[in-house]
Amino acid sequence: MTTPEAADAGAREPEPSTPLAPPGERGPVRWLHAVGRAFEPVRRAPVTVFVVVALWAVGALTGSLGSGPSTTLLNDIGVGVPALADGRWWTPLTSVLWCPGIGNYIGSTLLLLLLGSAAEQRMGSARTALVLFLGQVLGSLLGTGVVKLGALGGDDWLRDLSGQLTATPGIGACALGAFLSFRLDALWRRRLQLCLIVFPLMLALYVGHLQGVLRLGGVVVGLGLGAFAHRHTHRLRMPHASHSEGRVLVALVVAASAIGPLVATLYKDSFGPFNVLDLYVSGGPSPQDVADACVRPDSAGCARIRAQDRFYGSPAMLMGVAIPLLLFVLADGLRRGLRPAWRITVAAQLVWLGLMAFLLSDIASHPDQYVLEGSDLSDQKAAMIQAVAEQMLLPLLVLVLLLLARRLFDQRLSRTTVTWLAGAVGGTLLLACAAYVGIGYAVRDQFTPDARFWKLVAGLPTQFLPPSYEPFFFRGQAPIPVGGTALSLYEYCGMLFWVVGLVTLFVALRRPLMRADADAAARARALLAAHGGSTLSYLTTWPGNHYWFSADGRAAVAYRVHSTVALTTGDPFGEPSARGEAIDGFAAYCDRRGWTPCFYSVTADAKARTDALGWSSVQVAEDTVVPLPELAFTGKKWQDVRTALNKAKKEGITAEWHTFPQAPIALTDQIRSISEEWVADKGLPEMGFTLGGLDELDDPHVRCLLAVDGDRTVHGITSWMPVYGDSGAAADRAPIAPVGWTLDFMRRRSDGFRGSMEFLIASAALGFKEEGAQFLSLSGAPLARSDTAEPPAALQRLLDYAGRTLEPVYGFRSLLNFKAKFQPQYRPMYMCYPDPAALPSITRAIGKAYLPHMKPAQGVRLMRRLTT
Questions:
Q1: CA distances from residue 782 to 365, 557, 830, 853 in whole angstroms, order as listed
Q2: pLDDT of 148-159, one tens digit each?
Q3: Same structural domain for residues 682 and 814?
Q4: Helix, strand, coil percent values for the chain (each to nearest 5)
Q5: 8 shares its domain with 95
């Protein structure tokens, strides 16, 4: 059915692209156009370009590009607690023209070009400059104040930072990005804000440098300024995300939890509070570590550290970042909503928490094994416990997020894919274990001391974790390799497992999803294409349906079970002569299983059959069908439609056919943004079941008609599902062309072309008419019907009241009135059920079907809307 959000969704359109030179121009004119295009970014983002050029010019003139400004220069221009304490008030502003090193120069430049140019296009150069420099100053002051307060509170990390100075334009860039997010549509506003909060936070906690804390201060300042400047257009609440967008946000958080420690490895002097034990990302021993351990070259400690040093000098060093790589792969699976990816991610966080809990217990029981000689035992013990406890915070928070969002991840992989994944990973694990134990025992003299069989078996866990885990969890359990073959086993057995495991997992998580019954779904689709059904019959192909087939296979029913109610998706489909008997057969099938059958959104033909069975019925919607053979937009009654067509032509808006899976990403991204706007701004749950969304749009058989202007801005979108007729062909043969099309997905840009829906529906009708289609169904609006002279029964009055109550929220009746512009034929749609006593259960089942992911907070918000 059609969704009523078409008139509400909106997104900000991108800036028009630079026009290309006419193809007929040659020679000097062509070169002039090329030069003009090269300088186009300067014209459109002068402030950004000026800051970037000044940054690199000042860095080059002062010799700061390589390793940052000199100590003397940094004392004059660097921001930090010492500078402000000594009265160098100008440092929050002068720090914008230097960076700590070449890596920061490159990163800050990319950040400025990305966020600054986008900000100037949407906010103008003057406001961009104001926010950039104001954010630089206020962000520096806020971050410095946090460092000072933390130092006074006794935090060791912040106490170290309180004596440092730094300089980076990233503070102002982050503030600018946070402010800019309020100018974006809901989709990218939420994503940008999440990235600007989570990623700088991870870098600050893992890298631990002062500029990381100040960048985070810039983000907070930018969000505050943006919220204040847009207080009349943006409510101060967390915007609600759609089901699919929620998956993306969770995936971003998981990816950010991997990026922080991964980036920390690029810094030689990382000392963030989450990066103390070198476990999340493991690095090799330093030359000094090797020298200290090899004071006695013949000792076991020297042999072990030399083996580790060789390990990190070989391709096996991949294992040092195995955990972040695993989280990256799982984040991609979470983005797709896969339940296996969610389970593995939860298991990974639990394993990590378990290891840290074991380490805490071991430190408390044997503190002398973790404290350097000559150190104070109690102080070192407390410091180690604090370090481990801080390391536990990140996986704990990620675990809580995953548990709260568990309902988002309901997609499953096929059994074949799961079997293949388990076989590949398990087989590789067994092969690696057998190789290490078997070959290792054969060359046991290449270990020190000589390796016994059970000693090799006990040391197996250390082969699949980075060497840095061994001192904490497996002290003395694994034999120390010293010979060539033993060292190769030590380096490559674990790496083989991780490479195969990560690649296999990545491939498996990108394979097609499992349907409830893939074979039944394929059979049902073939039956539908060969013999057709009602105007809503294509809804039976949507995920979440189960299928019942008649004994002779000539008809089928799509249904889903909630509690003990088997709720059908429209009429039976298949051969027309078999559809009536399918109702009887499905009712008997439900009776044998103790289910209450409920035929939902069915036509008058199905109602006539259930009436003969003595069932009750009530009208729940009204289908609107437009015959196409004689369609002509002439006469006064078509005035609104003709106005929309003429206005679209005048404004240069055209109708373009696409399928969502093959559409250009520039268009699909706008479609997602337009759809997300309604969900985010309303804060109410999306409806499903007979109302399609983006997931149902992603179907090669569904056609999308877009209203696109000359700048490639999408003003509106409609999607059309095929309606097949009875071709008389076998179900395994190719179907003939659809006899009609049903409108499903409707969205329009809130600040776009006002008549986009009338324009798109009219354009689709004319296009389908030329193709030979017989009718166009504008689908039905739930709980809405046209007035009739027949007095309604008690239940019908209750449904009419529910429709009037929900009107301010979902606008079903307004949608029905909108469709009246196309002069449709009205065809009632019914709900048929055998036992009136089961109505409470049926009502709950319908509610779960339409709102399967409604959270308690959304339910409260919905009830508040209904009672005000």
A1: 65, 21, 10, 19
A2: 999 998 888 899
A3: yes
A4: 60, 10, 30
A5: no
Residue-wise pLDDT for 337-367, tens only, equals 889 999 999 999 998 888 888 888 877 777 7
Per-residue DSSP letters for 412-478? -B-HHHHHHHHHHHHHHHHHHHHHHHHHHHHTGGGEESPPPHHHHHHTHHHHTS-GGGHHHH-TTTS
Taking CB atoms within 8 Å and a gap of at least 24, the contacts of 121-128 are 121/15, 121/44, 121/45, 122/12, 122/15, 122/180, 122/183, 122/184, 123/180, 123/183, 125/45, 125/46, 125/47, 128/47, 128/48, 128/176
Helical spans, DSSP H, in 776-838: 794-810, 812-819
In the chain, the number of structural domains is: 2
From the list 399, 425, 421, the residue with the least C-alpha distance to 340 is: 421
Give the span between the Cα atoms of 389 and 377, in whole angstroms. Answer: 18
In a domain, 672, yes or no: yes
Domain co-membership, 126 together with 181 = yes
- Could you please report the per-residue DSSP string of 48-95? HHHHHHHHHHHHHHTT-TTT-S-HHHHHHH-BSHHHHHTT-TTHHHHG
E-strand spans in 301-368? none
Q: How confident is the model at residue 31 (pLDDT cuts 50, 70, 90)?
A: very low
0.90 cut: is pTM over it?
no
The number of residues in the chain equals 868
Cβ 212 vs Cβ 200: under 8 Å:
yes
| Neighbouring residues of 370: CB distance < 8 A, sequence distance ≥ 6 | 363, 380, 381, 384
Q: Which of 264, 297, 327 is the last residue of a domain?
A: 264
Pair (6, 73) in one structural domain: no
Angle at 731 between CA 726 and CA 735, to 5 degrees: 55
DSSP state of 411: B
Cis peptide before 449, with omega less than 30 degrees from 0? yes
pLDDT for res 682: 56
Query: How many other CB atoms sit within 10 Å of the CB of residue 87?
Result: 7
Q: Tokens 């659809």 sit at which residue? A: 738
> What residues have CB less than 8 Å from 262, skipping those under 6 apart?
281, 321, 324
- Taking CA atoms, 387 is separated from 150, 369, 472, in Å, by 16, 16, 14
Beta strands 555-562 and 654-658 are unpaired
Strands 825-833 and 596-602: what pairing?
Answer: antiparallel
The answer to whether the beta carbons of residues 435 and 497 sit under 8 Å apart is: no
Residue 395: count of CB within 10 angstroms of its CB:
20
